[in-house]
Amino acid sequence: MRKLLLIGAMGALLALLVSACGGSSSGGGTISVAKEGEGGAKAVNAACEEEPVAGGTLVYSRQLETVTLNPREIKNGNGDIFADEMLYNGIVRNDPNGPDKVVPGLAESWDVSKDGLTYTFHLRKGLKYSDGSPLSAEDVAWNLEQFADPEVNISLAGVAAGMESAKATDDTTVVVKLEHPVAAFLYNLAIFPAFIVDREKLEAEGPAFWKHPVGTGPFKLKEFAGGSHITFEKNPYYFEKGKPYLDSMRWNFVPNSNTRVLALKSGEAQMIDGVPFAQVESLQGDTNLAIQEVELPQEILLVTNTKVKALADVHVRHALSLAINRPQLNETVFRGTGTVPNSVIQNFELDASDQEVPPFEFNVEKAKAEMAKSKFADGFTVSLQYPAGFDYFKQMALLVQQEMGQIGVNVKLEELEAATIAEKWLEGEFELTFPFTGTTSDVPVPDEYASFYALPEAELDGFKSFWTNKEAEGLVQKFISSTDEGARQSEWKVIQELFNEEMPSLNVMDFPLINGHQSNVCGTKANGLGVDQMQETWIAGKSS
Amino acid sequence: MLVYLIKRLMVSIVVLIGIALGTFLIIHLVPGDPAKIQLGVHATPATVAKLHHEWGLDRSWPEQFWLYLGNIVTFNFGNSTAFSSNVAELIGNRIGPTAILVAYGLLIALVIGVPLAIVAAVRQGGVVDNAIRVLTTFTFAMPPFWLGLMLALLLGFELKWFPVSGYETGISGILRTCTVPALTIGLGLLVIIVRNLRANLVTVLHGEYIEAARARGYSELRVVAKHAMRNSIIGVITILASIFGFMVGILVLIENVFQIPGAGTLLVQAVSKRDYQLVQTLVFLSGAVVVIVGFLTDVAYAWLDPRIRLAGRS
Questions:
Q1: Angle at B170 between CA B166 and CA B172, to 5 degrees
Q2: What span, in angstroms and rounded, lies between the C-alpha atoms of A20 and A398?
Q3: Max Cα distance, chain B (Å)
Q4: H-helix or E-strand containing A291?
Q5: Distance between CA atoms of B3 and B32, rounded to whole angstroms?
Q6: Are A394 and A279 in contact, with CB atoms under 8 Å apart?
Q7: What are φ and ψ of residue B274, in 5° steps?
Q8: Which of A14, A99, A287, A509 is the most buried (most CB within 10 A)?
Q9: pLDDT one-digit tens code per residue, A220-248
């Protein structure tokens, strides 16, 4: 009997350890929204060039499970956020066609006062929730107050910073007041914590509301089977007439990437996300399928802890960056889908072009020269933490180890489970680390990440590089409060260059989301954050 | 017998408390804070403190453990932090597919394994015996996630007999969606059944009472199926009951590959999100099943064999 107990207990522990070593694909718990979809793949099916056809059902196998439908308390990153985008809308939206601009949502227009402190939103007339009940300006104002309440908006209270009040002044007008100008305010209103939900039902039902929530999005919820799937039906009251084209949609939660690819190839799924880099080429060869690279502000971030003496030396940080052969990394690891960055933080539409600010260079001689200029000319030893369970991180870590060895930096590799690595990053218990599988911005403008790095009030210690720079702090403070778009463009170039010069951390690669779909699935658009715009998606009659 | 039962019951309770304590300590000692995981880069000290308070994580460890023990006794397992849901309800929704998978997998293992073991025992040392032993060792040695993918590729993608992944309810839905994953489990367990049953049969087939049966002129089929099997299969079933703990680890992988919304994938998610309440409950319940099965086995043995229950008295 003792043996039985021992075996049983060991089995339970084994399961615990196996799962603890499995790694998470959600980027170590980042709230990750993608950006800047370009609308994606060229349609391989000529039928997609025709007028969209309404009707049909689509099965979409997704990597991340939807855990909650409460947009103000996200539990599982894009698993939750993408589902929220189906069920709800904001008063403004990120352009469904990709470029980084804010377009009308529930509000058809808005005015901003000269001082940038008052936003007056004019709602569309006759708006209805997906159950047919009317949506009032008071509902919108109440939802925006919820967005501004950090007790309610647990997911992303920071994006509501600066908001003072929201009031309905008549049936279709909502006035929002700010405490100080916030340049990215409209972008902040376009994302999930500011989504509008049915106030009356939420107040009546309490937390049970989130099991069958009601919003104004292109779809309404039909069934939510935790751990398995979620199904949506067309919202007949959606404000964009004629959309969505699909009658219904089923999202299967399939964390295993091989299983997702198999589901796509077998036709059991019409769409999948998270195509592994290694399988892009083989899927591209299949004429029945289309591979879509969705551009977004997403990077492989290598954080340098400047509390470590050697890494506090800016010459060393430059040497490390120069030693990384990014073009080779792009070919071998990202199969050419990545982009060599020209900015420490993710790629944004506001970024200066490659001509104005060149991409990070690979030059071992220059790297050695930088090392020689530093106080660590003889080299040093440093540890590099990377997440377990991802082949491409192992490859990257080995390449980085080898390349840094060439300039006298002895890198010791530490493979850690994703949640552990993120925790160690947050606590500053690392020297070099890849803290997230993908580091993404919540908004399609650089305000969020520039603040994370430069502003003490972000409480993130230079995004845990522990880098501080008074000049950067002043410039970023001005940039995020500036209401002049033209001025912001030139201000951002200065900040981008200063960040590159200081290099608080290393941007190893900008890389896209990779989705796949059957060739008769058309209109597979993503907005500037990489979020699927399923209201635009339709199924062509036959595959060419 | 009563004294023996009470003793065994006491031991089981101590073991269960040990499992509860072990799980509690392991999940709390593993780096990773559930609040920080949920908040990601937005984990400011204030928001982390707020969630800690909301989830009771600002209490001392002994206090948390005491509350957890209280929850177990009252069968109120609290709320999951990662899923915004009641733990009992969450597990209740996920336990069905897992139980079906385990039962179906065992059934397949027995249906394939028992005849193979009989053939191997009867043809002991021959080509067929060796082939069966090599084959079962091969299916056992293959990692379940790889074997599962290969079966999905063959039976789902190429032959289109079954879907490559997914889960459906109802008898036909279960047969459609659970056959390939259950076959993966069954092939993994095959070696345990075949090797043990074969070894038992080989021993039994040399027994005097088998010779006597043969001498009476019974057919070989009757000798094996009726006389030898009866004495050989009990040991195998005992072993199968005892490997439940190990099966949890296999289930985690199989459910992941075949997209079965079971308790195994729930455990993985709970661990990766450091959902203390959910991890503790899931591991405790798996441990409890092993303990209960072990207890019942011991009781059955004691009832059958007086030497066991009387051993302590001498």
A1: 75
A2: 23
A3: 84
A4: strand A289-294
A5: 46
A6: no
A7: 55, 45
A8: A509
A9: 999 999 889 999 999 999 999 999 999 99
CA dihedral A113, A115, A116, A119 (to 10 degrees): -30
Cβ distance A15 to B252 less than 8 Å, yes or no, reads yes
CB atoms within 10 A of CB B192: 18
Helix (H) or strand (E) segment spanning residue A439: strand A439-440
A1 vs B248, B261, B294: nearest CB? B294
Quote the minimal CA–CA distance from B209 to chain A in Å. 30
What is the count of residue pairs from A and B with beta carbons less than 8 Å apart?
Answer: 227
Residue A333, SS3 per DSSP: coil
For residues A319 and A407, is the Cβ–Cβ distance under 8 A? yes
Q: Do A207 and B84 touch (CB under 8 A)?
A: yes
The predicted pLDDT at position A35 comes to: 32
- What is the SS3 assignment for A396? helix
Mention every residue, 6+ apart, whose C-beta is less than 8 A from residue A36.
Answer: A98, A99, A100, A295, A296, A297, A347, A348, A349, A444, A528, A529, A530
Cα–Cα distances (Å) from A507 to A362, A366, A409, B208, in that order, read 13, 18, 18, 77
Q: What average pLDDT does the segment A505-510 reach?
A: 98
Q: Read off the pLDDT of residues A8-54 as tens digits, 9 standing for 90 and up.
A: 433 333 333 333 333 333 332 233 333 333 334 444 578 898 899 99
Distance between CA atoms of A45 and B161, rounded to whole angstroms?
A: 29
| Chain segment B194-205, per-residue pLDDT in tens | 988 898 888 888
Interface of B with A in 221-280 (CB under 8 A): 242-249, 252-253, 256-259, 261-262, 264-269, 271-274, 279
Q: Which of residues 18-47 of B touch A (CB under 8 A)?
A: 18-19, 22-23, 26-27, 30-33, 36-45, 47
Neighbour count for residue A323 (Cβ, 10 Å): 24
A19 CA: distance to closest CA in chain B (Å): 5
Residue of B nearest to A32 (CA): B40
CB contact under 8 A, A9 and B93: no
Interchain pair B287, A256: CB under 8 A: no
Residues of B in contact with A419 (CB under 8 A): 31-32, 37, 272-274
E strands, B46-182, in order = 79-80, 85-86
By the CB < 8 Å criterion, does B16 face chain A? no
Locus of tokens 């002043």: A474
Which residues of chain B neighbour A20 with C-beta distances below 8 Å?
30, 271-272
A12 vs B290: CB contact, 8 Å cut-off? yes
Q: How far apart are CA B140 and CA B186, in angstroms?
A: 10
Q: How far B295 CA sits from the closest chain A CA (Å)? A: 8
Check B31 against A420: CB less than 8 A apart: yes
